[in-house]
Amino acid sequence: MPEDSPVLPNFPSLALILLPIQPEASRINMSPAASKKYKCAQCSKGFKAESSRKQHAQAKHAMPSLIYRNIAYSNVSVAELDTITRRLSDLCHSAQRLQKEGYSLPTGTGVQDDSRPAPRTNPPCPDRDPSAPKMAAIVLDCEMGGTVGGQDELLQITMIDFLSGNVLQSRLVSPSRPIINWRENITGITAASMQQAVAENSALHGWEAARAELWRFADKDTILLGQSVYKDLKVLHASHMRIVDSAIVTAEAVLGKKSKIRKRWSLKTLCEELLGIEIRRPSQAGGYGVHDALEDALATREVVLLCAREPDKLKRWAGVTRAAFFEKKSKQTNYRGNHGTSIRPNFMNNSNEGDEVLRWEDVVDWETWPKSPPDSD
């Protein structure tokens, strides 16, 4: 190389990479904000897929589950409190619906039918006191025994805070009238267990004391929830307007919000079909079908939470259940039409001769059956 030639720096060779030019729309879609459209409600972190957001929420923000009798129940996070409360308020039933389903409403809130005598009105929850706010929503579950004349008498009251799941009260109630049927196979309460609770001073003294406990936590603005909770309010001799009845909510989803409620699905059925959980297991409450009031209250809360949180899931269940319900009704109608009214079902004869052996559900007409069939609890 000649001495006068300039010395060039020794740069490494560069490979030229040609990138395809994307259309403007594609470049916009690739922006971080657009590609992460699923945001975490707690920390606002964005994710490209809903599944990723759920995994993040479960790992970083999941609250410990409420566990009772080996069943895990949901918590309501702080971020969704307002949404759940608003949706719960939307689920409250109209005065017309409540009155049709046998609820005692506070004076001036019902729709009076002039063809019927005015129903007896029980006292309502107290007025709201801004200086002493009560619970926003309470799940109520009562156990009852039978008295003379087949009337119900309060034996136990259980209340939980709907939003937190905390137990507000769960105590036996000494009956105000003699009990001739303790319904032990349903309530799990016996005369001996009641006597022991009274002797230990752990039982409330009569329905008036139990109602006072309800009023200690609830006012007129509180939403009361339960499965066919009109029965519970009846034995408490109380009336209320802001009601969410899980039996009515689910029946309306199946049959229509303005339709006559021709069937109520039991709490056990709702838990199995909507939630995938089994309540009232024999090994837990002492026998098949025995109620545990706290378990029933938590299960009712879980059903209503699903209705508020996942209306699409409720709608899908209702669609399948509606088809099965009307198919069964059609078969019953066809059977009655084909056999006429002269055929009487034989429930006792197990032979292959004579009248056909029918099940109760094959012949019962829910149109004329009382409003609260046995499977509504």
From TrEMBL:
UniProt xrefs under SUPFAM superfamilies: Ribonuclease H-like (SSF53098)
> Where is the stretch described as Disordered?
102-132
GO annotation (BP), single: rRNA processing
Q: Which PANTHER family match?
A: EXONUCLEASE, PUTATIVE (AFU_ORTHOLOGUE AFUA_7G00870)-RELATED (PTHR12801:SF114), RNA EXONUCLEASE REXO1 / RECO3 FAMILY MEMBER-RELATED (PTHR12801)
* Protein species of origin: Stachybotrys elegans
Segments forming domain C2H2-type: 38-62
Protein name listed in UniProt: Ribonuclease H-like domain-containing protein
Q: Give the GO cellular component terms, alphabetically.
A: nucleus
A GO MF label: nucleic acid binding
Q: Which UniProt keywords apply?
A: Exonuclease, Hydrolase, Metal-binding, Nuclease, Zinc, Zinc-finger
SMART domains linked: EXOIII
Name one matching Pfam family.
RNase_T
- Tell whether Zinc-finger is among the UniProt keywords: yes
